[in-house]
Amino acid sequence: MNDRIEQFIAQAKQFLPSDSMGKELEKNLRALASSTFSKMDLVSREEFEAQTAVLARTREKLEQLEQQLEQLSQQP
């Protein structure tokens, strides 16, 4: 997440003055970006991929259990 904030700040610095006012604006922009990103409840790519893998395994297990249930329900 900090990488995204740093990328955003680096891009925004192009438009900020290079004096002390620019430094203050950068500080405020960094705080605003950090606050906004944290409110958005974003997750990292790694966490997203890990949760996607868990979901895939869960889906496979559910399908197996559904098949077993179907087989059991067909028995006399």
From TrEMBL:
Taxonomic superkingdom: Bacteria
Subcellular locations according to the entry: Cytoplasm
Any matching Pfam family: BMFP
Record keywords, A-Z: Coiled coil, Cytoplasm, Ubiquinone biosynthesis
One GO CC term, this protein: cytosol
Pathway annotation: Cofactor biosynthesis; ubiquinone biosynthesis
GO BP terms: ubiquinone biosynthetic process
Coiled coil: 45-75
Assigned protein family: Belongs to the UbiK family.
Functional summary from the UniProt entry: Required for efficient ubiquinone (coenzyme Q) biosynthesis. UbiK is probably an accessory factor of Ubi enzymes and facilitates ubiquinone biosynthesis by acting as an assembly factor, a targeting factor, or both.
UniProt protein name: Ubiquinone biosynthesis accessory factor UbiK
Organism of derivation: Dasania phycosphaerae
